[in-house]
Write a structure and sequence with these properties.
Strand content of chain B: 5-15%
Largest sheet of chain B: 3 strands, mixed
CATH class of the largest domain in chain B: Mainly Alpha
CATH superfamily of chain A: Immunoglobulins
CATH architecture of the largest domain in chain B: Orthogonal Bundle
Helix content of chain B: 40-55%
Largest interface: A-B, 15 and 13 residues
Number of helices of chain A: 0
Number of helices of chain B: 11
Strand order of the largest sheet of chain B: 6-5-7
Number of domains of chain B: 2
Strand content of chain A: over 45%
Order of helices and strands of chain B: HHHHHEEHHHHEEEEHHE
Structural class of chain B: mainly alpha
Number of domains of chain A: 1
Distance between the termini of chain A: 33 Å
Strand order of the largest sheet of chain A: 2-8-7-4-5
Oligomer: heterodimer
CATH topology of chain A: Immunoglobulin-like
Shape of chain A: elongated
Order of helices and strands of chain A: EEEEEEEE
CATH architecture of chain A: Sandwich
Helix content of chain A: under 10%
Structural class of chain A: mainly beta
Chain lengths: 105, 259
């Protein structure tokens, strides 16, 4: 499954930066039925985390009311050059990761 | 004097239905984008917020993946899609000589799979088919639509135009009643657009996924309580062709985002 990450490539130390993430997921609520009345089992992402050089800077719990292909954006302070690591965890053992690097001057 | 004025008025009145029944003049053509709110526009404009780009990425991976009994990838024949597929979607549906009829981009992908990759066709609206057609059509982003220029296509464009003008369903509405005569008005709070197919396959927030023009046409048909044509049916292809020729000159936006 693909993900789209937007992290500025190069910033000044101390800048507040926006990080935007978008990932593929159907986010099936578990409340819908098929035409013949069977319940469609829930299949959602339940948790998202972002680590900045190993330290967790952002975490979100996701719930059935969240749209397919969840988009999350958040802010952090650029302290040092390095790597952002993103992880999405969900139902049925779903796990997906992505990363992006940043240069802080 | 008043007699002449009455005659002039009558003449104008007689000419009016011809103008009304005629299509929107080309310089008044507007993409569905111009009917959207600022939030949805921003979503389409930012490639890292546009969920359609997820499908384009998947399509790019499929483009380079070997498949079928021939063990060939799209890239093995077509090379770099950035050059080989540039402008292709702007002229689809295109006339296929061996078949003697127009084929849509989705059908072309499946013809390629059958004839060259010796692979099974991808079902309509399957994720892989949407991803591939989104990736191919994305290579034409910004290029003006020229579909329907081929003289061989003339009878099929006419067939599509007739279907567009023909009333159908329990509500007895033709496409033209909304999309030529009443665009810019509202239907249950949502703007009625001109129905210009500039960004397909596109990400519809209502669908929560990418979908083809045929899916959109079928949902309009069930909206007027008509029996929708099957995916890939000659009628849907003709309608798609007419709509694309009607949108002549508007730039391709794939993958567009629509509410």
């Amino acid at each position: 499954m693909s993900a789209l990450i937007n992290v500025p490539a190069k910033v000044r130390r101390g800048d507040v930066i926006e990080i935007r993430t978008l990932t593929s997921h159907i986010m099936e609520t578990g409340f819908r039925h098929t035409v013949d009345g069977k319940l469609v089992p829930r299949d959602i992402i339940t948790s998202f985390t972002c680590r900045y050089n190993g330290a967790e800077i952002f975490r979100a719990d996701l719930f059935p009311a969240i749209a397919a292909n969840p988009y999350l954006s958040f802010f952090t302070v650029a302290k040092e050059s390095g790597k952002f690591e993103f992880e999405w965890i969900g139902d049925n053992g779903y796990s997906s990761t992505a990363s992006a690097s940043i240069i802080v001057e | 004097m008043s007699v002449w004025r009455a005659i002039a008025a009558a003449a104008l009145f007689a000419a009016a239905p011809a103008l009304l029944a005629g299509e929107i003049p080309p310089d008044a053509h507007r993409s569905g984008y111009s009917f959207m709110g600022p939030d949805t526009r921003a979503m389409q404009d930012d490639d890292t917020a546009n969920p359609g780009m997820l499908f384009v990425l998947d399509g790019e991976a499929l483009w380079g993946k070997k498949t079928g009994n021939a063990e060939k990838a799209c890239a093995d024949c077509h090379g770099d899609a950035r050059t080989s597929m540039n402008g292709v979607a702007a002229r689809y549906p295109a006339f296929d000589k061996p078949l003697g009829r127009p084929v849509t981009l989705d059908q072309r992908i499946n013809l390629c799979r059958a004839n060259h990759q010796l692979a099974t066709p991808l079902p309509y609206e399957s994720r892989d088919l949407l991803a591939l057609s989104a990736f191919v059509a994305h290579q034409s982003r910004g290029i003006p639509i020229t579909a329907g220029d081929d003289p061989n296509l003339k009878p099929f464009v006419d067939q599509g135009r007739n279907l567009f003008m023909q009333r159908e369903g329990q509500l007895n509405l033709a496409c033209t009643n909304c999309h030529d005569d009443n665009f810019d008005k509202r239907l249950a709070g949502a703007p009625v657009t001109q129905g210009q197919p500039t960004g397909y396959p596109l990400y519809r927030l209502e669908w929560q996924t990418l979908g083809s023009l045929e899916r959109r046409l079928r949902s309009c048909m069930s909206g007027v309580r008509a029996q929708a044509y099957d995916y890939g049916s000659p009628e849907l292809v003709a309608l798609e062709l007419y709509l694309m020729s009607r949108a002549r000159g508007l730039p391709v936006e794939t993958p567009a985002v629509r509410p």
